[in-house]
Write a structure and sequence with these properties.
Blueprint lengths: L2 E6 L7 H14 L3 E5 L2 H7 L2 E4 L26 H14 L3 E6 L1 H12 L4 E5 L15 H22 L2 E6 L6 H9 L4 E3 L7 H13 L5 E6 L5 H12 L3 E5 L11 H19 L5 E6 L2 E6 H7 L6 H10 L1
Parallel strand pairs: 1-2, 1-4, 4-5, 5-10, 6-8, 6-9, 7-8
Antiparallel strand pairs: 2-3, 10-11
The structure holds adenosine-5'-triphosphate (ATP).
Amino acid sequence: IRKIGVLTSGGDAPGMNAAIRAVVRTALHNDLEVYGIFNGYLGLYENNIRKLDRQDVSDRINRGGTFLGSARFPEFKEESVRRQAIKNLEQHGIDALVVIGGDGSYMGAKCLTEMGYPCIGLPGTIDNDVPGTEYTIGYNTALNCVLDAIDRLRDTSSSHRRISLVEIMGRHCGDLTLAAAVAGGAEYAIIPEKPFSEESLLRALDKGDSKGKKHAIICITEKITDTHELARRIEAHTGQETRATVLGHIQRGGAPGAFDRVLASQMGAFSVALLMEGEGGRCVGIQNNRLVHHDIIEAIEKMPRPFNQDLFDTFKKLV
Ligand code: ATP
């Protein structure tokens, strides 16, 4: 291969810039040309493609978001749209593509690979919900952001004997919520992997009251229930002031932490090495502290992300 493309897709995550930088610098180090595709699969379809040099990724490693931009572009599920995308890549002479994004973006990469266009997927999302890896780029930074918010809520909650309900991102994955609950010393965690019983939550709060707890922090993953409504019901049951805080996109912004910068740099460099070895249709991960790669289709279809039951059990003993 002589020319590779790189794009970011789906929700942005801190560390995506570090991954792009690693792809660009590793490619240039190996005398390959690199092209940036702007705004994910939409830019691929619209031919929003530009050659990148080493200065294009200067001063980026410490920035959140993605300077290539990202987009949701459901039309990419249509074969005719993907055919146009491949035509654009061929026009630039691009031989292979690195796609940085979540499992939806992996589906796009899988489709392109099946149409004869080699892609490597890198896991970039704060949700930590991508198969074939223990950690995604952006997760650790988001976790520290959530933790900072919980620490702040704890200060004010304990001063006012208040109950704080904190809604955390993750879509269908409770990793961010559970880890933040453990690290933040929360009283209760409501996550998608475990059935939610409002009754047992209220019972736990009653128990906490009798233990003499001054406040309670409850972490809940988004999309499980209406968090503001739940706060109102908790207040009605306990008679204690209860506030819901929906952290929202705050969790996605900010400078990537050291862990995500290192992970992104390693994964970006590894993706170029794989393409140079002639690999395509692979996704990169980190497992047992080693970089690994899996067939992207097998990963999506057959590798459910394991739930950390041990951490959940530990959490329950610590409240
Ligand atoms: P996040 O986890 O942060 O939301 P994601 O990559 O899962 O990231 P999606 O919106 O699901 O985010 O997917 C990103 C893009 O990938 C979509 O907008 C679409 O362009 C493409 N895509 C998703 N599913 C498919 C599919 N089945 N076939 C082809 N392309 C797809």
